[in-house]
Design a protein that fits this description.
Length: 102
């Protein structure tokens, strides 16, 4: 029971500290609530996010056609033939069925 009472007292002290700090001029909470941007700085702007292409991860039971692109072990591969049977980048002869493009 003493642990609950102590935890409650600590929580009340923390809440009171934050409440008081919002009205005391030299506290961070008071200062942060009164921050204004400079008047000669525009408050609007443009953000460019670019483009993003998602590649499905390669799976051994996947069905792929010529031109399909997949990722495997951090590399992007493109299928050179329909239904390639080799694991890209791993099985011997994989480069006859896949092209590493990135």
């Amino acid at each position: 029971m003493n642990i609950k009472r102590s935890a409650f007292r600590i929580a009340v002290i923390i809440i009171m500290g934050f409440s008081i700090s919002s009205v005391i001029e030299y506290s961070y909470a008071y200062w942060a609530s009164n921050v204004l941007p400079p008047t000669n700085t525009p408050t609007e702007g443009n953000v460019s996010v670019g483009t993003y292409t998602y590649y499905e991860p390669w799976t051994s039971d996947g069905v792929y056609v010529i031109g399909d692109q997949v990722t495997h072990n951090g590399v992007i591969y493109q299928a050179k033939k329909n239904n390639p049977t080799k694991e890209p980048g791993v099985d011997g002869g994989w480069n006859s069925q896949w092209t590493a493009i990135g």
